[in-house]
Amino acid sequence: MLHPDKLSEAFERLVKSSGLPPIRLHDLRHGAATLALAGGTDMKVVQEMLGHSSITITSDIYTSVLPQVARDAAEAAARLVPRTRTGTDGHTSGTPESS
Predict the structure, then answer these.
(1) What is the pLDDT of residues 32-73, one digit of tens each?
(2) Which of 66, 80, 83, 90 could bridge to 97 as Cys pair (CB 3.0-4.6 Å)?
(3) Half-sphere exposure of 44 (CA within 13 A, CB side)
């Protein structure tokens, strides 16, 4: 039987020898959840992957929004906002631009 402390110690040695920033073994669960979500995985699937009884635990505690994901969401929302055309005289016509 492998004691949890021995596994954590082995993981710490691997992290140090790899030159990566310090990370706890448990942090990998948070990272996996965040990357899965960023990759388009449905939150319910992430919940099942991590074995959580509640999707709230998964979404509130185990996932973070990566900057690029937030930027993509903002750009998608901005694309939904109608724009007006500017004529050659510099005045807007009030007619939404076509895509």
Answers:
(1) 999 999 899 999 999 999 999 999 999 888 888 888 888 988
(2) 83
(3) 0
Whether residue 56 is contained in a domain is answered as yes
Mean of pLDDT over the chain: 86
Predicted TM-score of the model (pTM): 0.62
Query: What DSSP letter does each residue of the chain carry, written as one string?
Result: ---HHHHHHHHHHHHHHHTPPP--TTHHHHHHHHHHHHTT--HHHHHHHHT-S-HHHIIIII----HHHHHHHHHHHHHTS--EEE-TTS-EEEEEPP-
Take residue 33 and report the two structure tokens written for it.
Answer: 């959840």
Measured in whole angstroms, the distance separating CA 1 from the mean position of its chain's CA atoms is 35
The pair of three-digit structure tokens given for residue 81, joined into one six-digit string: 């906002």
Domain assignment of residue 28, yes or no: no
Q: How many domains does the chain have?
A: 1
